[in-house]
Amino acid sequence: MPTLAHKIGTLLFCPDCGTLLNLPKDNESSVICEQCEHEEPASSYENIEITTRSHPEAFPSALRQKRKTQTKVHEADAALLKVSEKCPECGHLEAYSKEMQLRSADEGSTILYTCVACKHGWRVNN
Ligand SMILES: [Zn+2]
Ligand SMILES: [Zn+2]
């Protein structure tokens, strides 16, 4: 199941990097995140209630929900170390790192990086 954008009122935020997504233009089937190029289907906007002014209490509860999903750490992510490494794909300055020990000690180790923002993966040999 693909990750869908976070909704706050009438706004959608990128599920990968948290950037505010633009509204889809006419005849466009998806919206591209300006920050990480995450592709969000335009259908995500269809269920948004536009008349939020009549429900002012909807906004804070949506904010609380967002905070809850952000602090939830996936088990796989918890085992990874977050480091300051620049993503070659999107330029984001945080990545998860994981060290892979190769077959023999002579071959050294390889560090796998996964961009926090766009999930781009790359490796660096020691
Ligand atoms: Zn994004
Ligand atoms: Zn990236």
UniProtKB/TrEMBL annotation:
- Does the keyword Nucleus feature in the UniProt annotation? yes
Its Gene Ontology molecular function terms? DNA-directed RNA polymerase activity; nucleic acid binding; zinc ion binding
Q: Tell me, which GO biological process terms does this entry list?
A: termination of RNA polymerase I transcription
Primary place of residence?
nucleus
The UniProt entry, under InterPro entries, shows: Rpa12/Rpb9/Rpc10/TFS, Zn_ribbon_RPA12_C, Zn_ribbon_RPB9, Znf_TFIIS
Q: Which residues bind Zn(2+) 1?
A: 14, 17, 33, 36
State its location(s). Nucleus, Nucleolus
Q: Which residues participate in Zn(2+) 2 binding? A: 87, 90, 115, 118
Q: Where are the zinc fingers (C4-type)?
A: 14-36
Domain spans labelled TFIIS-type: 83-123
Annotated SMART domains: RPOL9 (SM00661), ZnF_C2C2 (SM00440)
Q: Which UniProt keywords apply?
A: DNA-directed RNA polymerase, Metal-binding, Nucleus, Transcription, Zinc, Zinc-finger
Task: Specify the domain of life of the species encoding this protein.
Answer: Eukaryota
**Matches recorded under Pfam families:** Zn_ribbon_RPB9, Zn_ribbon_TFIIS
Tagged with keyword Metal-binding: yes
Q: Name one GO cellular component term.
A: nuclear DNA-directed RNA polymerase complex
**Function of this protein?**
DNA-dependent RNA polymerase catalyzes the transcription of DNA into RNA using the four ribonucleoside triphosphates as substrates.
**PANTHER family per UniProt:** DNA-DIRECTED RNA POLYMERASE (PTHR11239), DNA-DIRECTED RNA POLYMERASE I SUBUNIT RPA12 (PTHR11239:SF14)
UniProt similarity note = Belongs to the archaeal rpoM/eukaryotic RPA12/RPB9/RPC11 RNA polymerase family.
Full protein name: DNA-directed RNA polymerase subunit
